[in-house]
Amino acid sequence: MKEISIFWFRRDLRLEYNTGLSEALQSGYQVIPIFIFDADILDQLEDKYDRRVDYIHQALEKINAELKEFGTNLQTYHGKPLDIFKKIESEYKVKSVYCNRDYEPAAVKRDTEVKEFLNGKNVDFFDYKDQVIFEKNEVTKDNHEPYTVYTPYSKKWKKTFSPENIQTVVLNHKNFHQSDFNSIISLKEIGFEKTDLKFELPTLESAIIDHYDKNRDFPALDATTHLGIALRFGTISIRTCVRFALKHNETWLNELIWREFFMQILFHFPKVVKKCFKEKYENIPWRNNEEEFEKWCKGTTGYPIVDAGMRQLNQTGQMHNRVRMIVASFLTKHLLIDWRWGEAYFAKKLLDYDLSANNGNWQWAAGCGCDAAPYFRVFNPDEQTKKFDKDLKYVKKWNPDYEKSIFEERMVDHAFARNRALEAYKKGLGEYNGR
Q1: 258 annotated ligand binder
Q2: Does residue 352 have a known ligand-binding role?
Q3: Domain ranges of the chain
Q4: Structural Rg of the chain based on CA atoms
Q5: φ, ψ dihedrals at 170, nearest 5°
Q6: I want to staple 102 with a disulfide (CB 3.0 to 4.6 A). Which of 19, 63, 92, 107 is the partner?
Q7: pLDDT tens digit string along 210-262?
């Protein structure tokens, strides 16, 4: 049996500019690339018509076709990662396993278990930084504590950055383990259905990014990059994006830094998965009316832009970022429904769902997160519409019966809801004066 190395694809679904894969191919052993459809994750997905799973599957098919050119193929598995590695270790003379690091609490636990098993079998486990420019403690305050406010974090990020952070990596294609070509496991075999999603290689469009700062808040313009899903699953490298942003638009660079800010918050404060970053906000007396939550989910609140956003989400798995802020503010402030309900609904629906960003942005909207909007900021959906969709192009596209909903189905009056929210927050935070 030949001694081999394994490269384990996860959130890095590309061959080019892949740090861990490059390192594996320099290990001195032939490399077998693998992907595991993780049962611990997939079993939580109730809807088997899931575009994200299909996106991953199509991205893997593309990788497999590329690997064929190098005389190898991608080996795919379905199950719990630890069980899969026990199986692989019994079938091959594995010397080392390579991958790129993940920072979510469940992923850290998974990798620790796999590493401990492999080390117990005298197999090395190597992981590398790949999905971020800076990780863990690489951007901290001068006293080495993590930042909890974005602006100073971003300033330190930019000060720490150097061209070396976006250097290219070389792949030695000759070091792949040579094998007969096989197709990857089918969607049906892992219990999922083919969807209407068509995988396309992510591209950086200067026509959009050059004007990102001016156009990004107007949902009807469709002037955002749509790279959220590509960054989530690593079909594009963050280094490629940062290099482009440095040349074209600082506002977009700042958005990429926000992504890393929330990732380091999740890494340093894993409690935020279930709890408010600001603990005193656990005392907010949420109303949590299930019928009202259902109306919000379906996009039948009577507020045109809120309903347009929720209908876009339900139909496509996408929602414009400005509209995400509006619908999140509406749920937490107008309806006084716990941010965790909205966060969980987005997690089920968003194509680009990423735990750190989703959690961070929901806590921002609810006022309970790090560097959050103050609790007394309550977006007025009508004013937001006038400002960002004055011709109602976005509203009409996703909510064509909007006029009827305004007059017949508006759930709650804005002024009433705002005052109710302020009183509830003051009470929860111990500031309520009874008036």
Answers
A1: yes
A2: yes
A3: 1-129, 132-166+207-268, 273-427
A4: 23
A5: -105, 140
A6: 107
A7: 999 999 999 999 899 999 999 999 999 999 999 999 999 999 999 999 999 99
